[in-house]
Write a structure and sequence with these properties.
Number of strands: 0
CATH topology: MetI-like fold
Structural class: mainly alpha
Shape: globular
Radius of gyration: 22 Å
CATH class: Mainly Alpha
Order of helices and strands: HHHHHHHHHHHHH
Helix content: over 70%
Number of domains: 1
Strand content: under 5%
Largest sheet: none
CATH superfamily: MetI-like
Number of helices: 13
Length: about 280
């Protein structure tokens, strides 16, 4: 029994089980996973063509206008200065690819995550079953997602977006569920007393009142997406992760620093804009 308690050698062959499972999925369901990849690929290619096809001056103007409408003139000035600086640093094309990846990933996260959050808010049993999966998705290190994603979806930007979707989805599910559950029961009961059906209560009372919390979940999903698309450069994804990865490999501190600075600036802009979607406009 002494050898058993030494724990020097693995007694449970979990590594072999995981490799066998992934190999079996690749051998038997490769075509099905390619079908999953297809809509992500189309959305990603469309977003990338849009962002890269628009003239930088037009893109800066549009994002500056959005910042002015959502937040105020100070944020508009910061957005314009940030994007102009990114262009001067030579990171414009990488930034547009990163934005395309983030927008694509967040679109799928919202399309899947918000309905799942709504379902979880309506069923304690469904929430209890979903919670361990969300815990695993949030606590699994980002790099761990890359190996099975590469095996199932190959390498490239689209595979990076798929890994980002998996990594960034939990916050919007959790906060959608939390926001709806936190709606005062007095308001829900009042709507029931006036004859509102369950779907009407959900659409006209619970979701509108939960919107600030849902938007906070969207904000967190965007931030996680931005961090993951950088890591996805390790599997051939484009964007601002490329100069960071190249700088790391070749010890070019300047290249990695410029890429990192661009990521920070874009993250600040996206964070302020998405926060403003769930709060009143600053005066």
């Amino acid at each position: 029994m002494a050898g058993f308690w030494d724990f020097e050698d693995p007694l449970i062959p979990m590594e072999d089980w995981i490799e066998t499972t992934v190999d079996w999925l690749v051998a038997n369901y490769r075509s099905e996973f390619q079908l999953i990849k297809w809509p992500v690929q189309k959305v990603m290619w469309g977003m990338e063509a849009l962002f890269k096809g628009v003239h930088p001056a037009v893109m800066i103007g549009l994002l500056t206008l959005a910042a002015w409408k959502l937040v105020g003139w100070r944020m508009a000035l910061f957005t314009a200065a940030t994007l102009f600086l990114v262009g001067l640093l030579g990171m414009w094309e990488h930034t547009m690819v990163t934005l395309a990846m983030v927008v694509s990933a967040v679109a799928f996260c919202a399309a899947v995550g918000i309905p799942l959050g709504i379902l979880a808010s309506q069923s304690d049993r469904f929430e209890a079953g979903l919670r361990p999966l969300l815990d695993a998705m949030q606590t699994t290190p980002a790099f761990v997602y890359l190996v099975p994603v590469v095996m199932l979806f190959s390498i490239g930007t689209v595979a990076g977006v798929i890994a980002t979707i998996i990594f960034a989805m939990p916050p919007i599910i959790r906060l959608t569920n939390l926001g709806i559950r936190q709606v005062p029961q007095e308001l829900v009961e009042a709507s029931r007393a006036f004859g509102a059906t369950r779907s009407q209560r959900l659409r006209r009372v619970q979701i509108p009142l939960a919107m600030p919390t849902i938007m906070a979940g969207l904000n967190q999903t965007i931030m996680l997406s931005l961090s993951m698309v950088v890591i996805a450069a390790l599997i051939g994804a484009g964007g601002l992760g490329v100069p960071v990865f190249e700088g790391l490999n070749s010890l070019q501190v300047g290249l990695a620093g410029v890429g990192g600075l661009s990521i920070v600036l874009i993250a600040m802009v996206l964070d302020r804009l998405t926060q403003a979607l769930g709060t009143p406009k600053a005066k």
